[in-house]
Amino acid sequence: MTQIIDKIYIEVCNIAKQTGSFLKEEQSKLSRSNVELKGTRNFVTYIDKEAEIQIVKCLTPLIPEAGFLTEEDTIENESKEFTWIIDPLDGTTNYIHGDNPYGVSIALMKENKIVLGVVYDPLTKELFSAFDGENGEARLNGQIISVSSHKTLKNAYLSFGIPYQIDVKAEEIFQNAYKLFRSSSFRIKGSAALEICYVACGRFDGYFHSGLSPWDVAASSYILQRAGGICTDYCGLDNYIFGKEMVASNPSIYSEIMQQIIK
C-alpha cells in the first residue's frame, strides 16, 4: 500500500493545483444567475460540478478500482477498499461573493482509514498535504508543519463554523464560546478544510464546527493528526469524518475546549 501512496502522492497534489487554477480563473466569470441553492445558505455553482468532474477524471486512472464519495454527486458514490473523498470547492459561499478562503480537498481512504490528504488554496498557493509512509509528516508547500504550542484558552486564537441547521446543541456551544470572547480571539473563515489545516500549521490553536460532511474534513483532519493535533467528535470519540461534528485542536488546549465550549 505504501508504494501505491508514494507513487500517486505527487499526482494528487498536481490535480489539486490544476483544479485550484480552474476555480480561480472561473471565479471572475461567475454571475449570481449561475448560483443554485441546495438549502438555506447552502450554495452550489456549475463550477463546483465541473471541478468535481475534472478531479474524478484525473483520479480514476491512479487507482482504477477505487470508489468515490463526492459532494456534488457527479458520479455514483460508492465505497470500496480504496475510496476517494472529494470536495471540489470548499468555501462556496466565500467563492460566489468574491471572498476568501476557498480551496480543493482530496482524501484517499483505505477501508475506514484515511491514508492521504491534500488541501489546496489557489489564492495563496498554499498546499497542505500528508500521506502514509516514511516521509508522511504534514507539510505546507513541502515544509514540515506542526500545531501550535499555546497552552490555554486564555489568549487562544480559535476558529469555528456555523452549521446550516442550528439546533439546541449548537446554540449552547455558541453561548459557551461567547462567554470567552473577552479572553480568547474567535474567527469564522468559511472553509472547514482550510481552517483545520490552519490548526495543523499553528495559525489557529483550535477549531470546532457541527453540520459537517465527510468531504469537508477527511483530508484536513488527517493532515492535522500528522501535524500532532487532535480531532474528535463532540463526544470525544473518533466519529468525526462521518459524525457531522468536529473539534480540532493542539493537544494542550483540547480538554479546555471540550470542558468550557463543547460541554
Report on this model:
The chain has 263 residues and is α+β, with helices and mostly antiparallel strands. The protein folds into two domains: 2-144, 2-Layer Sandwich (Fructose-1,6-Bisphosphatase, Chain A, domain 1); 157-262, 3-Layer(aba) Sandwich (D-Maltodextrin-Binding Protein, domain 2), CATH 3.40.190. The protein is 33% helix and 26% strand. It is built from seven helices and 14 strands. It has helices at 2-27, 46-59, 92-96, 168-178, 192-200, 214-226, 254-262; strands at residues 35-39, 42-45, 67-70, 82-90, 103-110, 113-121, 126-131, 139-140, 143-144, 157-160, 185-187, 206-210, 230-232, 245-249. Strands 3-4-5-6-7-8-9 form a seven-stranded mixed sheet, with helices on both faces. A hairpin with a 2-residue loop joins strand 1 (35-39) and strand 2. Helix 5 (192-200) packs parallel to helix 6 (214-226). The protein is globular, with a radius of gyration of 17 Å. 44% of the residues are buried.
